Amino acid sequence: MRTIQCDVVVVGAGPGGSMAAKYCAEGGLDTILIEKKAEIGAPLRCAEGVSKSWLDEVGIKADPTWIRADMKGAIIKSPQGTSFQLDESKAGAEVGYVLERHLFDKALAKDAAEAGAKIMMRTSCIGIIREEGKIVGIKAKSLGEEIEIRAKCVVAADGYECQVARWAGIDTNLKLSDIDSCIQYRMCNIDVAPDYCEFVIGSVAPGGYVWVFPKGNGVANVGIGVAGQLCTKGADAKYYLDKFIAEDPRFEKGQILEIMGGFVSTCPGLDCAVDDNIILVGDAARIIDPITGGGICHACRTGMYAGKVLTECAKTGDFSKKALMAYEKMWRDRMEDKLFRNFMAKEKLATLDDETIDQLIKMISTADLKNVTVYNLLKAVKEKFPQVVEGFEDLI
Predict the structure, then answer these.
(1) Strands lying side by side in the sheet with 153-156
(2) What is the mean pLDDT of residues 220-242?
(3) Which fold has domain 2-45+102-173+269-343?
(4) pLDDT, tens digit, for every residue of 194-219?
(5) 3-class SS string, the chain
(6) What is the pTM of this model?
(7) CB-side exposure of 366: number of CA atoms within 13 Å?
(8) C-alpha torsion angle, residues 138, 29, 108, 60 (rounded to 10)
(9) φ and ψ at residue 130, rounded to 5 degrees
(10) Taking all residues of the chain, what is their mean pLDDT, rounded to a whole number?
(11) Where in the sequence of the chain do the CATH 3.30.9.10 domains occur?
């Protein structure tokens, strides 16, 4: 069997994997990035919406190549039609872009390659290699050939499925209440606001929300997430999305160009995302915003943190769990409180009826909020509806 040697092997060329590979390579590590698919970023499994606030933080320069639409703001709606519109003057950098995600992912992989990482396409991880109980690399199948990639550390960036973590003995199991079932249509011939993302919460999407992310010229991503524990009809996500579209006259002439579906984790991260000689980033570590299901920025941050920590570990040759705990500290210091707060808000939101949600949106629309963030929205809710934030008031 052919064997390849390197310092770090990264499994998965999504945003988290490419960022980890880039920062490892920039740090002088011999880095291999493997991707099981024939094309980075495709097929699409993403609503493609991101905020602008974090791009500079991780060293990504906004590029018109992968920006499909620049949003002026967002609209939040209740099933009863009450809406709250916010624009960039209040939301600032929280307002963002709708991407061409496959081009975004390719751009990040290109950055990794330019930093010195080696990319292997159509190469899937099929197992972990251990010697004397220690992880020393992965087994892979590359264009049909079984190979071994020996490495000092493995970066698991294989997304929601997180097979690599499970093979390494890390528990990534989720409760049904921490899974959203999602489906999205890319639609044309629809009449939606071209520069406002739209979110509809309540019984139209039990435990989740409907989103409409415009991509210009009457095209938009129209999708839904439904909380796993509230699924009772089998293909619930499709049922609720089709119902929403059928009842909204803006979609009367709409046609579906693309269908995608999948699952999103909505827990606030694993108890620990490292072990000896392995580090988990992004969705593989369940580091994703529980209230929105958004994971691109979290994947990019954690990938960057992983690359920086591994660069330091390489200086001493120590890739033990103890040495990798510096990564745990970095992502938790930056994101843990917000993720847990949003997790608690997600749990409460799933219990509210449409009338309460309608009252909440009316209250928010009249509140004097100079800067609209999830945190500031929850502060406003706390004053008028303290029962909604019961149990996590100290985080607000």
Answers:
(1) 118-120, 31-34, 8-11, 153-156, 278-280, 274-275
(2) 91
(3) FAD/NAD(P)-binding domain (3.50.50)
(4) 999 999 999 999 999 999 999 999 99
(5) CEEEECCEEEECCCHHHHHHHHHHHHCCCCEEEECCCCCCCCCCCCCCEEECCCCHHHCCCCCCCCEEEECCEEEEECCCCCEEEEEHHHHHHHCEEEECHHHHHHHHHHHHHHHCCEEECCEEEEEEEEECCEEEEEEEEECCEEEEEECCEEEECCHHHCHHHHHCCCCCCCCHHHEEEEEEEEEECCCCCCCEEEEEECCCCCCCEEEEEEEECCEEEEEEEEEHHHCCCCCHHHHHHHHHHHHCHHHCCCEEEEEEEEEEECCECCCCCEECCEEECHHHHCECCCCCCCCHHHHHHHHHHHHHHHHHHHHHCCCCHHHHHHHHHHHHHHHHHHHHHHHHHHHHHCCCCHHHHHHHHHHHHHCCCCCCCHHHHHHHHHHHCHHHHCCCHHHC
(6) 0.93
(7) 7
(8) 140
(9) -120, 145
(10) 92
(11) 50-57+68-98+175-265
Q: Crossing angle, helix 321-331 and helix 296-316, to 10 degrees?
A: 150
C-alpha span between 376 and 90 (Å, rounded): 11
Is 391's pLDDT higher than 80?
Answer: no
* Helical axes 101-115 vs 15-26, angle rounded to 10°: 20
Say if residue 58's pLDDT is above 80.
Answer: yes
Residues 6 or more apart whose CB falls under 8 angstroms from that of 285 comprise 156, 162, 165, 269, 270, 273, 302
- Does the structure show a pLDDT above 70 at 89? no
Cβ contacts of 265 within 8 Å, gap of 6 or more: 160, 174, 178, 179, 180, 283, 286, 288
What distance lies between CA 163 and its chain's CA centroid? 17
Whether the CB-CB separation of 11 and 149 falls below 8 Å is answered with no
Q: Residue 80: its pLDDT value, please?
A: 87
In the chain, ranges of CATH 3.50.50.60 domains: 2-45+102-173+269-343
Six-digit token string for 320: 């033990």
Asked if 288 and 295 touch (Cβ cutoff 8 Å), the reply is yes
Q: What is the pLDDT of residue 369?
A: 64
Given CATH 3.30.9.10, say whether it is the number of domain 50-57+68-98+175-265. yes
